């Protein structure tokens, strides 16, 4: 069973995020701490450039997902903190290119005075649900090739 994206008709429909997500039993949860615009060596990417920092932070989130075999569609939620004064539209455009448009996560954006690491304009935390089809028999849901399980 995949993540179920919930968008009640009584709520605003957004092209950028889902309103709620139901995670199926048996999924492994991945919690990704606040990612900022540094690469693997700790070097800043896009110092002073909110779009470049958003892009690097999203690349870091995707790297964490990839480490456990997950992809953007597995994201349940993103918590995005931006420093007051940044162009939110630039950040949104930069982040959207890393999301799966067919499976949008929940997104919450907070505007803050500053972030812990000086120079950071954007910080992104995430939660993902990793569903391993190879666990289907163990979970009592039939064989891996059983289409009713997916």
Question: What's the helix and strand layout?
Answer:
Elements: E1 4-6, E2 20-22, E3 28-35, H1 50-67, E4 75-83, H2 88-96, E5 106-112, E6 122-130
Parallel strand pairs: 4-5
Antiparallel strand pairs: 1-2, 3-6, 4-6
Beginning-to-end CA distance, first to last residue: 4 Å
- Name the CATH superfamily classification: RutC-like
Please state the second-level CATH architecture: 2-Layer Sandwich
Biggest beta sheet summary: 4 strands, mixed
Textual characterization of the structure:
This protein is an alpha+beta fold. The chain has a single domain, classed as 60s Ribosomal Protein L30, Chain: A (2-Layer Sandwich). Helices cover 18% and strands 26% of the residues. It contains two helices and six strands, in the order E-E-E-H-E-H-E-E. Strands 3-6-4-5 form a four-stranded mixed β-sheet. A two-stranded antiparallel ribbon has the order 1-2. Strand 4, helix 2 and strand 5 form a beta-alpha-beta unit. Helix 1 runs parallel beside helix 2. The relative contact order is 0.24.
Any descriptors?
150 residues, 60s Ribosomal Protein L30, Chain: A, 2 helices, globular
């Amino acid at each position: 069973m995949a993540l179920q994206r919930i968008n009640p008709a009584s709520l605003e429909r957004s092209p950028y995020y889902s309103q709620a997500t139901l995670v199926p039993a048996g999924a492994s949860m991945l919690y990704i701490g606040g990612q900022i615009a540094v690469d693997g060596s700790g070097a800043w990417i896009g110092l002073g450039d909110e779009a470049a920092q958003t892009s690097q932070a999203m690349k870091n989130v995707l790297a964490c997902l990839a480490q456990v075999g997950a992809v953007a569609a597995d994201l349940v939620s993103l918590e995005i903190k931006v420093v007051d004064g940044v162009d939110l539209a630039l950040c949104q455009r930069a982040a959207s290119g890393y999301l799966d448009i067919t499976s949008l996560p929940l997104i919450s954006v907070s505007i803050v005075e500053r972030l812990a690491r000086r120079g950071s304009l954007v910080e992104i935390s995430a939660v993902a649900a990793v569903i391993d089809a190879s666990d289907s028999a163990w979970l009592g849901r039939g064989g891996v090739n059983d289409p009713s399980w997916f």
